[in-house]
Amino acid sequence: MLRSAIAAHDPLYSMNSVKLNHSVPVELGEQSYQIHVDFGLKNHLADHLAPWNQGQQWVVLTQQAIFDIYQPVVNQLKSAGFRIETIIVPGDESAKHIQHAESVWSQMVAMGCDRSSILLALGGGVVGDLGGFVAATYMRGIPFIQVPTTLLAMVDSAIGGKTAVNLTAGKNLVGAIYQPKAVLIDPDFLATLPRRNVISSLAEAVKYGFIRDSSIFDTFETRFDDLVSLNDEALLSEIIAKSCRIKAQIVSNDQFENGERRLLNYGHTIGHAFETLQAYQGLYHGEAVLYGMKCAGFISHKQGLLSDLEYQRAKAVLDRFELPALAEVTADQVLGVVAHDKKMINGKLNFILLDRIGNGLVSTDVSEDDIRQSLSAVQ
């Protein structure tokens, strides 16, 4: 489709703004960094990393399937004079366990890594979360750089410094907020991404449309198939960049999640419960969040915050996402997990609701009965 035709009806586009590369600042004082979005960036990764290369030991943390495809990217760094070692971790959520963090720490010791070493997280959200946690704790903190290879990581998890491993009791319960030195995004990585992974990843992008920018939601209404197929580079680049800008702005305003940053948890409270109850198997993270957003939208409507029309619009978009069947869970099980959620503060659950599409709010008035009834939206 011609870009002029796109601009005529797509709120993400204007004739003067369509481009394929973006730079988004995360303003955090001495911890500030840049998010770079650029097609083909991986082919020039050594140039982007050169400012940090002082001859120290670098560690690429990744998964086997990613390394099998992108080993030439690592070889490129070696050819450019980087001292590079690679550590492979499991290819699923099981990698986010303290035993795997300990394994990575031990391998880094054996490699001679010191406080000048740099960890390069090459992968999706699992690699980024684990890699950031390892970097935050190894020798009390070493630099790390995010090179996300999944759409979910590009629009959300690689940005903002949240790092963690899971416990049996819940997701991301042990971790640290530790900022990367840079986030380097190449949408070309997405060419090998399975459709299910794309659909799951888009959960975090549509989330921004719900909580902050209704134009993103409007684009999901009008161009859902184009987003899922990834067949329009300009659209893909812009929605990644727009998501990054929203997250960067929120993180810059509230790095440690004392207020505004809580909005980013829309759909996550109940979504994390679904993940936990299924032992992090069967559901991708984004799929669980999509189910969680269905519940949160139901509660927003039930409490009279979200109008009938906007609730139906939200429901219609979420119903377009292809989701696997949710394993049967009881309300008591969900509530049991929610009781241990990180968003429970002084006995009050900070739950994210909507009063309109494009505006999220933090509520402490979501009851157990609200959550019980909301499960009817997904079962």
TrEMBL record:
Its main location: cytoplasm. Residues 202-344 form the 3-dehydroquinate synthase C-terminal domain. Its cofactor is Co(2+); Zn(2+); NAD(+). Zn(2+) binds at E204, H268, H285. Residues 87-199 form the 3-dehydroquinate synthase N-terminal domain. It is found in: Cytoplasm. GO terms for cellular component: cytoplasm. This is 3-dehydroquinate synthase. The gene is aroB.
